[in-house]
Amino acid sequence: MNAAAIEQRSRAQVAVEVVGQTGSTNADLLARASTLEGPVLLVAEHQTAGRGRAGRSWLSAPGDSLTFSLAWKFDLPLQQLAGLPLAVGVALADALSACGVQVQLKWPNDVLKDGSKLAGVLIETQAAPGGGIWAVIGIGMNLRMPDDLEERIGRTVAAAPWLARMDRDDLMAALLASLAAALGEFRQAGFGAFSARWNRLHAWPGRRVSILDNGAVLHDGIAAGVDDSGRLLLDGAEGRITVLAGDVSLRTREH
After folding, report:
1. Domain-by-domain residue ranges, the chain?
2. Is Nucleotidyltransferase set as a keyword in this record (predicted)?
3. Cα angle for residues 58, 61, 64 (degrees, 5° grid)
4. Kind and range of the H or E element at 131?
5. Which pLDDT score is estimated for 214?
6. What's 3-200's CATH class?
7. Can you tell me the distance from the alpha carbon of 41 to that of 3, in angstroms, rounded to the nearest whole number?
C-alpha cells in the first residue's frame, strides 16, 4: 500500500504511514502517543502480534486482511469515550456499504457479515501531555480467509472477497475517510449521534442473548439495542437493565 495515495484519496487531515510488518500497530502508536502532534493512521501489511479485546490474539495472514490503527486525540473525559467502539463500528459499516458489502454490528466491538465476524475493534487510551486523551483505535478486517487460518482461529469467520479484489489504497482511503468523519462527529456530539444508526445495524435485535465474563453468565435476556451512552439494553425476567462495555462476550441462545 502507498501512504501518500491513501492520504490524498481519503481527503482526511490524517498523516498516513505504511509498514511492511510489525508486531502491533496499536502498541506502536501507544508508544509514540506522547510525541504525536496530530492524528496518525498506521497500516501494517502484516501484523505478527495483533491484539483483540480481553487479551485475545488477532490472527491474520499476509495479504488476506487489513490491520491498522488510528491515533486520535479527544478533549473529553475518559467516561465519555465509552461509546467510541460502537461509533467506530458504524463508521466501518458505512464505508463497507458504500463499497458494496453489507454488514451488521455486534455489541460492543464486532462487525459481522452473514452472522460471522468480519472485523474487530480494539481501542486503547493514553493521557496526552498537556491534557486530553489519545485514543488508539485498532482494527483488523478479514478480506480472504484461508482454511488453515480459520482452523487456527477455531471458529467460523467471515471474509469479503469483493473487498479483496479492490485496490487496497482505495479501500483504505474509504475506511479512513469514514472513520475521520465519524470521530469528528463523536468529538462534537458523543455517541448519542450514532445510537439510532447502530441500532439499525444491530445483528441480534429481539434475540435472546447471554452476557458472559470469562465463561460465566452475568446476564440473560432479550437484546433491545443500545442507549445514547453505548450501553446494551437487555430485557430480562426482572425488567430492562443496561450493560456497560467491558470484558464480556455476547452469545446468542436458543429460545
Report:
1. 3-200, 204-252
2. no
3. 110
4. none
5. 75
6. alpha beta
7. 9
The pLDDT, as a whole number, for residue 253 is 54
Average pLDDT of the residues in 98-109: 93
Please state the length of the chain: 255
For residues 63 and 168, give the distance between their C-alpha atoms in angstroms, rounded to a whole number.
10
Q: What is the pLDDT of residue 230?
A: 94
Residue with C-alpha cell 501507544? 30
Q: Which residues, in sequence order, are bridge partners of residue 219? A: 211
Residues linked to residue 141 through DSSP beta bridges, in sequence order: 66, 119
Q: Enter the C-alpha cell of residue 65.
A: 486482511
Instruction: Return the pLDDT at 50.
Output: 61
Q: Provide the pLDDT for residue 148.
A: 52
pLDDT tens sequence across 182-237: 999 999 999 999 999 999 999 999 988 888 877 788 888 899 999 999 999 999 88
Give residue 40's Cα distance to chain centre: 16
Level-2 CATH architecture, domain 204-252: Roll (2.30)
Residue 162 CB neighbours (<10 A): 12
How far apart, in Å, are the Cα atoms of 175 and each of 91, 142, 183, 229?
Answer: 8, 14, 12, 24
Q: Pseudo-torsion of CA 68, 110, 53, 247, nearest 10°?
A: 160
Q: Collect all residues with Cβ–Cβ distance below 8 Å to 165 and sequence separation of at least 6.
A: none
Task: Give the number of other Cβ atoms within 10 Å of residue 182's Cβ.
Answer: 22
Report how far residue 193's alpha carbon sits from residue 181's, in angstroms, rounded to the nearest whole number: 12
